[in-house]
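call fold(seq) -> tokens
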Amino acid sequence: MVYTDFNWDNLEEKLGITNKKTILFDKINPFSISDTLLEAIQEAQQMHLSSEKSRSEWIVVPILRELRKKNDNFFTIFSGDSLNVDSKKGLKGECDFILAKDTNSLSLNCPIIQIVEAKKHDVDLGIPQCTAQLFGARIFNEARGVILPKIYGCVTTGNEWIFMFLQNNIVFVDTKIYYLNEMESILGVFQKIINYYKELLK
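ret:
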């Protein structure tokens, strides 16, 4: 069993995680988008991006790069790296994207945000997988003495974006789905999350 095998039933059975849908963010400050990112997204929208790999390269990565640049490289981006913390519980496998606090280390250190590329263009299918990865990230951090009350995640098809966080053993899933044409808001949500971690990880 790996992260992609998790569903709501075995999340509760194996990890004791329950879920709750709620409004995660009352107010989002729109993010000022650079012309470079705007042009990249406009080009991506003109293309037929049928695979997860193409959507990650043409949509997800430019957005994350923009966010990283605007935050003075506060975090680094790991793509396709493994997060293996407990094989017996199935907490192992590759992750689409892990955003980790930049510690100038070449290896994964202090993951703060998990991003899952939704399979079959269905964000709902990716939420249990992302939840398991959030649980794995928490174990990873705690083993290194890093205690974060919330671990945030996101599932995306490239066009649809849904955010969540794990606190204690409850995953809170946003009732709002953001769409790519709301890119200022998508980046605004990410910025709010990054600001949260900046306060915790000074």
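DSSP finds five helices and eight strands in the chain.
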